[in-house]
Each structure stands twice: as C-alpha cells, then as structure tokens.
C-alpha cells in the first residue's frame, strides 16, 4: 500500500495520552480535543498499539528497510519487484526529508512479538522485538496529492509473516488518532492500486471513504491499467467515529 485496543500517544507536553500512498508520491469513542499546542510543535513520538511498538524511522533502520523491500510480494502493488539496496537507500533519504516538513508526522518502524498473533503484546524496546514493517504518516506530497501541511498521507508495509492478522488496521487506527488528536491534522488520505483489494479492505475497515480513481503514474505492470484509488478521513469523520465507538461501550 502507498500505501485495536487502547492506543498510547505522547502529547505535546511529553505526557502519555491514552489511544497504502506515500511511497508512490515520494518516488515520483468520544471526540477528543486537539492539544492546546500549535501544529508544528509536536515531536514525532514512539507509539504503541495492543501488539506493536512503533519507533520513529532513523538511519539505523536502513538494513531493515532493505530486508523489507527484498520481498517482491511485499512490493506487489508498488512496482511489482524487489528493490536493490541502492534504491532502498534513496527511498530512505526521501522519507527522512519528508519527516522534517511537519513536526509529528513521518515514518515509523513497527516491532512486534510472537509473529503478531492475537495474544501477543508489544515489545518493551525495538531490540527485544521482531521487525514487523514500516508505517507511514508523512505530509501529503507529490503530483497526485494536495500541497497542504494540514493533510497527511497514511500508508503501511508489513513483513509477510505479519500479514492477515489485523495489524495493518490496528496500526492505521493508531496513526489516525495521532494525526487528528495530537498533530492537529484536518484530513488524512490514503492511496493504493485499484486492484489491491486487501489494502482497500483495510481502509474501509478503519472508516475511510472512497474519494476517486485516477490514472497510475507507475511504470506499467499488471493492474496499473485500472489506475489508483484514493480514500480519506476528515477530522469530522474521525470525531463522529469516536462518538459512535463511545456510545457502543
């Protein structure tokens, strides 16, 4: 993709607060109040979900990115082939550059335990965990995305043994809450291939809505002729979703 439980996010004052598109563009409940701090003053925090530890991307993670992108199945809808170490290093540099554009937004390396099974727990540190994938929430960017610092781009990429266990949805919900409740974003978008039904299911499951289909800018491979799709969640949608979840508990 360009692509539950209670989440824990660091707030603007550093205290704990209980709660598939970027790659393509880079290469070419109760409603919670927005923190009093201004947008642009939120550091990119370590995040936790019920099963994952999300650590801000750093240069020390390059080897793990190379490992992730060496599996052509992981990149089936992102060019359809494995990437060389040089290509991954170039992608890493672009990610790090995007991370500095809006404070609080960027990329996270995900670490789990027990292969992410339903009864697993997040590791206490990345050194104790198993690498599970790359989670993405940079500012919107590129020719197919708005030039607006209040809009971010949700995406994820999981190591294959972590597929089909609900982790993409779990991590995406974490990032949505971080975008709206902590950073103060107005809108989050996600883009993926039209034929990527698994990622489209995740986006629908977390409450995002379909916006449009548009021509793919990828080098042609099977499926690109059907274009790409964009989904969105606005602040209002997220607040309504939180209210419905709160009413159900």
Compressed to H and E, one letter per element, the order equals: EEHEEHHEEEEHEHEEH
> Which strands sit side by side, in order, in the main sheet?
3-4-5-6-8
Strand residue percentage: 15-25%
Question: Structural class, judged by helices and strands?
Answer: alpha+beta
Mean pLDDT: 84
Q: How widely separated are the two ends? A: 32 Å
Question: How many beta-strand elements?
Answer: 11
Helix proportion range: 25-40%
The tally of helices reads 6
Instruction: Please state the overall shape, judged from the principal axes of the Cα atoms.
Output: globular
Sheet with the most strands, sense and barrel status: 5 strands, antiparallel
Please give the radius of gyration in angstroms: 17 Å
**Regions with little confidence, pLDDT below 50 for 5+ residues:** 2-40
Textual characterization of the structure:
Helix 2 (62-69) crosses helix 3. This protein has helices at 22-27, 62-69, 85-99, 167-183, 197-205, 235-248; strands at 8-10, 16-18, 47-48, 53-56, 106-112, 130-137, 151-153, 155-158, 187-193, 209-214, 228-234. The longest helix is centred in the last third of the chain and has 17 residues, at 167-183. It is globular, with a radius of gyration of 17 Å. The protein has 249 residues and is of the alpha+beta class. Strand 3 and strand 4 form a beta hairpin.
């Amino acid at each position: 993709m360009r692509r539950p439980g209670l989440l824990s996010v660091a707030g603007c004052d550093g205290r704990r607060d209980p709660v598939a598109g970027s790659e393509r563009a880079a290469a070419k409940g109760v409603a919670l109040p927005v923190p009093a701090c201004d947008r642009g003053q939120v550091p990119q925090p370590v995040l936790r979900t019920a099963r994952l530890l999300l650590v801000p991307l750093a240069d020390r993670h390059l080897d793990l990115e190379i490992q992730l992108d060496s599996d052509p199945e992981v990149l089936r809808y992102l060019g359809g082939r494995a990437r060389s170490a040089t290509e991954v290093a170039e992608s890493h540099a672009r990610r790090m550059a995007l991370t500095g554009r809006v404070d609080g937004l960027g990329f996270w390396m995900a670490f789990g335990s027990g292969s992410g099974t339903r009864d697993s727990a997040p590791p206490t540190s990345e050194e104790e965990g198993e690498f599970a994938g790359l989670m993405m929430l940079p500012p919107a960017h590129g020719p197919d995305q708005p030039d607006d610092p209040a809009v971010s781009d949700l995406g994820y990429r999981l190591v294959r043994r972590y597929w089909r266990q609900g982790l993409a949805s779990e991590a995406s919900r974490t990032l949505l809450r971080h975008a709206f409740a902590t950073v103060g974003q107005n809108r989050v978008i996600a883009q993926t291939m039209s034929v990527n039904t698994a990622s489209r299911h995740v986006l629908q499951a977390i409450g995002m809505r379909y916006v449009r289909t548009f021509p793919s800018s990828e080098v042609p491979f099977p499926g690109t002729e059907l274009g790409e799709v964009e989904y969105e969640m606005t602040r209002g949608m997220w607040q309504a979703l939180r209210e419905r979840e709160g009413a159900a508990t």
